[in-house]
Design goal:
By secondary structure, this protein is mainly β. It contains 4 helices and 13 strands. The protein has a 13-stranded antiparallel β-sheet. The radius of gyration is 23 Å and the shape is globular.
Amino acid sequence: MKLGGGFDLRLGRIGAPFFMTSDFRNVGYTNLSVRTPFDVYGLVPVRSFDGGDLLYKTDLGETTLNGQLWLGKSGVRVSQNAQGDIDLSLSNIAGINLSAENGPLTVRFGTMKTRLGTNGSGTAGLNTLLGGLGHLGAMPGLESLATMGNDLNVNGKLATFSGLGAILDTGNWVVNTEYVKRKSETTYVSDANAWYATLGYRIETFTPYLSFSNRKLTSVTSYAPVAVPPGYPPVVQGTVPVLVAGVNGALKSTAESTSALGIRWDAGKNYDVKAEFQQIRVPAGSTGAFSDVPSGAYMVDTKVNVVSLVVDFVF
């Protein structure tokens, strides 16, 4: 809905604008590489939100300025277990994005905050764990269990996400880069910093490119064993390590870094062919981007090679 004066209003289900290329990241043809760097874009796997946004656009000399204020709610399925699905909800989302375009250069900054929650039948195990931590954490000498439970609890906790990015396209040289930071009040959603840089050079219809990305976690990903004071019955002695193991099982490190070498061939006016070699490096103690890792995490530094060949097209 056009409001005049450079303002537009949208209501309904809208693409979630967390990243610089959120508006078109699912359209492979618009991306230089085979896929957007997962080290960065995997931090917020939310594709859309329900609500509204207010858009503003104006020209300042040769520079075009864009602003976006967005409000709403969303959710995403984060995992599954034997009991069912575990969904993460985002409520009271409030975000703002600002960008400036001048010739071949576009710079963007965005930030948002939200309240988190969990739902789904798969949360039964997590809720049982939190209940056990709260119960034993009320006992003298075991207060650290209550602290773990409060840290792990998701419902009502604040989370924020911010990013700064730039795109430079001179016709031959293409540079995409972005730095993002995720923070939350729950250890279930870890704090993380991530970045990527992609460099390409067009030679007629061919564009070879290099890409590097990295994700680093900055919050607690495991707790040390808790010593049980003397005098507690065997059932408490045996339950405490089980609870701590349960907490550590819920806290997974996804730290990793990725290097990619590829080439894009614009074979026609509405389709391209891309070939890419990726090497993903996962440090010991992390699962990286992978699920169902034996022992819950890689025991040693691990390298995973990925070869991709894709065809992208638009109608």
